[in-house]
Fold Cytochrome P450.
Amino acid sequence: MKNKGLEYCGFYAFARPNLILLDPELIKAILSKDFQHFTDRGFYINEKVDPLSAQLLTLKGLQWKLRRNKISPTFTSGKVKMMFETLLNCTKELKVLMNDFAENHQVLDVKNILGRFTTDVIGSCGFGIECNSLRNPDSEFMKYGKKAFGEGTWDHLKNSVSLLSPKLFDIFKIPLNNPEVIKFYMNTVKETLRYREENNVVRKDFMHLMIQLKNNVKIENDDNLGELRSKESGNTMSLTDDQIAAEAFVFFFAGYDTSATTLSFCFYELASNVEIQENLRNEIKNVLAKYEGRLTYDAIMEMTYMDKCIRETLRKYPPVPAVVRTCTKRYKIPNANVVIEEGVTVYVPILGIHYDSEYYPNPNKFDPERFSSENKSERQYTWLPFGEGPRVCIGMRFAQMEVKVCLATLLQSYKFSVNPKTQIPIVFEPTSLLLAPKGRIWLNVEKFK
């Protein structure tokens, strides 16, 4: 359609009209400039039937705005920096496990190992719980994390129907999330909250910030080194235990698989492009030398080539291949005689845009220099792995820090190459909600002598 010079086109999913946006300026208008017409995502939400469904990702209108304003200060760069040491502690087991793979010449199922790492990170930083998934791949968090993403045909069918016709779930009072998953996360969060409040436990993590919000303590929206600074709030809307459980769940749901997938694809590209891998390793070593070999928050923020590599990975492999918005107020497309009616779903095809040769020449090539300081300014609304506008991913800073810590930890000590068991070129799994490879990515790992 874009080749025909169109800025948008439409299709029907059953009886539901959908509009696909093709023009970056129109995408900018709908995601940002005219956001008041497209405030909702149109996802399933029912707080009574499925309490985990009522969180930032799904909330609508005023409910979303109030919750976003309440929670946004917990994800400033300062608050993310506060969690750095907690995150860094999770790399200890990762290094132990990677040593075993290298010394025993075992082939690395990169998604499996990094999924266990991101589970430990989210468990520790999000719930304040040591999951030990790297040590024990059958940990409860891994078990229920997999269940949360769906394990069979019925789960895939429910996910598809929830996107096409979420009202059916309300009519039949069906929870989208697995009842076992709901029970596990609700109980885990409530037990954590009770223990911390009864024993006055303070920990530098997401759960502590949620407890402050529950107690109607306003978290300062600043970047002052992530200190646990707060003051009494005049806002009477505190968070309930159920709401905290829902936000902790989406912190896990949105952060576990997306970060593991991004890391898997990044290691695959680095293993496939030896020179790029070596350039990144040299940057890591040179920066760490300035910090006496210590991996710190300030050190990873200096790794600019790493940032380019991550951005290019997210360009080729955006975890969420499309962003959706529901029209909440009748909207006339600028400079056109087309009106988007209330209820129409609007799609931004992220994967398609990221592979558009108009914006990214030779799009199948992995080229971090696409995101040099000179080129980054050209990427506005054509690089959208976290979305854009007021509903941009709130956990973007945390996710990037997690990925950077993992890359810096492993690349300074290990070399990676692609094992022949890996299918090349990568083929995407068609039944997955998130972008995922069909089959596994297998890598060889070698420790520096």
Observations:
- Residues 32 and 389 are 4 Å apart (CA to CA).
- DSSP finds 18 helices and eleven strands in the chain.
- The mean pLDDT is 89.
- The first helix runs from residue 24 to 33.
